[in-house]
TrEMBL record:
InterPro entries: NT_sf (IPR043519), RelA_SpoT (IPR007685). Residues 45-166 form the RelA/SpoT domain. It holds the Pfam family RelA_SpoT. This is RelA/SpoT domain-containing protein. CDD domains: NT_Rel-Spo_like (cd05399). GO terms for biological process: guanosine tetraphosphate metabolic process.
């Protein structure tokens, strides 16, 4: 049975806390699966604000607002360049129950138009949460590149939110930027592919990509990329098979997940140890996972040797050995 505007509004107020829990669980689920698929991305999620829900009801003049508003929960997956859109889409389809995909990237007949290439996925959220009618909660997933996301956020404020249509020249200027967005995405993708052909850079980049993706299954705290490259350069000398190391590190992280989580809680950037002493810096960095893994087997002797010749502060390594509970 259709709900009136007032009934839909009251229902959304009551159910929003459960929708919010479901979308956060879905965000975590996606982050873990995309990391394992080696898709570098940022995932954000939110339940629609109550005021936004009500505003949309009146703006769109829905006849059945509860069913017609399909973005009560929204997830945004942002990848660095267009080459990662299809891998991300494939993994989303694999790990969620997808209801519908709206993909305008290759729609024929619009080659002469400048438009935001929509890539939206309607999916059932994880956790078996359902409304009182027994209907599973859904979310709308927006999949974009970083450049498209920047353009979309900026243009949305100007084109869709002011309550009146913008001047034609402003609209045209904003849509012209889509051409630059396409060029930007293509150049970033080309640069990534070119870097992958450079042996030394490829090795460090590959290793950092691997460890960052696994690290993101533990925390989304920001880290210093410059420091990561300095440390990764040393750590890479202790790894003979970088191609096979991804699976090895993933298995290590799963095997010792509880122990690693405790280490980050006790010594990470928000811990009392770090805030009091300013030490344990690497416990806030993704390369800490490689250090923990190297310290867990005979590779720690090789790690000690590489570190001694790597011009890195000795206390960085000894602090991490203390965190992991081993002697060097």
């Amino acid at each position: 049975m259709s709900l009136s505007v007032e009934e839909a509004f009251q229902r959304y107020q009551r159910e929003r806390p459960r929708i919010e829990e479901a979308v956060e669980a879905t965000k975590t689920h996606l982050e873990e699966h995309l990391a394992r698929r080696r898709v570098t991305c940022q995932v954000t999620a939110r339940a629609k604000e109550v005021s936004s829900f009500q505003t949309k009801v009146y703006r769109k003049n829905y006849t059945d607002p509860w069913k017609q508003i399909t973005d009560k929960a929204g997830v945004r997956v942002v990848v660095p360049h267009g080459g990662l859109l299809d891998p991300a889409l494939d993994e989303i389809k694999r790990c969620l129950d997808v209801v519908e995909v709206q993909d305008d990237r290759h729609t024929p007949g619009h080659e002469d138009r400048l438009r935001y290439p929509r890539l939206h996925i309607q999916a059932i959220m994880v956790g078996n949460e359902a409304d009182p009618d027994g209907t599973p909660y859904e979310c709308e997933i927006q999949l974009r590149t970083e450049a498209v996301d920047l353009w979309s956020r900026m243009s949305h404020k100007l084109l869709y939110k002011p309550g009146a249509a913008p001047p034609a020249d402003v609209s045209r200027s904003l849509y012209r930027l889509i051409a630059l967005v396409e060029l930007f995405d293509l150049e970033v993708e080309r640069g990534v592919e070119a870097m992958a052909q450079h042996p030394e850079l490829a090795r460090s980049n590959q290793l950092l990509d691997v460890v960052e993706q696994v690290y993101r299954t533990f925390t989304d705290h920001p880290f210093s990329t410059e420091l990561s490259y300095n440390v990764i350069d040393v750590l890479s000398r202790t790894i003979d098979d970088p191609d096979g190391y991804r699976e090895h590190l993933t298995q290590f992280a799963e095997r010792f997940r509880d122990r690693i989580e405790r280490a980050y809680t006790d010594y990470g950037p928000n811990s009392a140890h770090f805030l009091r002493h300013g030490r344990y810096l690497l416990a806030s960095q993704p390369e800490s996972l490689i250090i923990f893994e190297r310290l867990s087997n005979n590779a720690r002797y090789r790690l000690r040797s590489a570190w001694d010749t790597g011009e890195l502060p000795d206390n960085m390594l000894t602090d991490m050995a203390q965190v992991w509970g081993v002697a060097l």
